[in-house]
Amino acid sequence: MNATSLAPLPVNSPIAEVEDRELIERFVRGDRLAFEQLVDRHQKRVVRLASRLLGWTDSGEDVTQEVFLAAYRHRGRFRGEASFWTYLATITTNRCRTITRRRWLRERVFGSMLATAPAKAGEASGEARLQTDETAREVRHAVAALPT
Predict the structure, then answer these.
(1) Concatenated DSSP letters for 70-85?
(2) What is the C-alpha end-to-end distance of the chain, expressed in Å?
(3) Is the dihedral of CA 48, 51, 56, 57 positive or negative?
(4) What's the chain's Rg over C-alpha atoms?
(5) What is the pTM of this model?
(6) Residue 49: C-alpha distances to residues 20, 63, 108 (Å)
C-alpha cells in the first residue's frame, strides 16, 4: 500500500459512494462498527449544515448527536433511494426546523407574557395571575401539539 491509499476518501467520490453502500447495508442490519464509520465520514458535514441552519450557534453539535441517534434508531427506514448524506441532511433540516419553530414560539409567547406581567410579582392581582396561568396552559397545549 502506498501513502495515497491510506488517505481518507472525499465523501462525494464515486469510491466513497460504493463504500457508503456497503457500510449502509451492514448498518441497516445492525452493525455498530459500520455505523461508527458512517458517523466519522459524515459528522463534519452534519455539524456544518446544522450550524448554518441554526445561525451558527453552539446547537450544531447537539443537533448532530440527535441526527445520528435518530438515524440509528430508525435505520430500517432508510430505503437507499437517495444517498446516505441526503438522508442525514433531511433529518438535520427537519430537526433544525423544529428547534427554530420552538424558539420562535417561546420568544413570541413568553415575550408577550413578560410585556403583560406586573412590575413586581408581589403586586400581581388575582386576575393577572389567572391570565398568566391561562397563558401558560395554552403554551403547554400548543407545544404538546407540535409534531416531533
Answers:
(1) HHHHTGGG--SSS-HH
(2) 48
(3) negative
(4) 22
(5) 0.60
(6) 20, 10, 26
CA angle in degrees (0–180, nearest 5) for 47-35-60: 15
Q: Give the cell for residue 79.
A: 430505503
Q: In this structure, which amino acid lies at residue 82? A: A
Q: Residue 27: enclosing H or E segment and its boundaries?
A: helix 14-28
Per-residue b or e along 46-68, where b marks 16 or more CB atoms closer than 10 Å to that residue's CB: bbebbbebbeeeebbeebbebbb
**Cα–Cα distance measured from residue 132 to residue 147, given in angstroms and rounded to the nearest whole number:** 25
68-117 pLDDT tens trace = 999 999 888 888 888 889 999 999 999 999 998 888 888 877 776 666 65
Q: Could you tell me which of 96, 107, 11 has the C-alpha nearest to residue 60?
A: 96
Is residue 23 within 8 Å of 34, Cβ to Cβ? yes
Residues 140 and 11: their CA atoms lie apart, in Å, by 42
Domains of the chain, first to last:
10-115+127-145 (1.10.1740.10)
Give the sign of the dihedral formed by CA 122, CA 126, CA 129, CA 133. positive
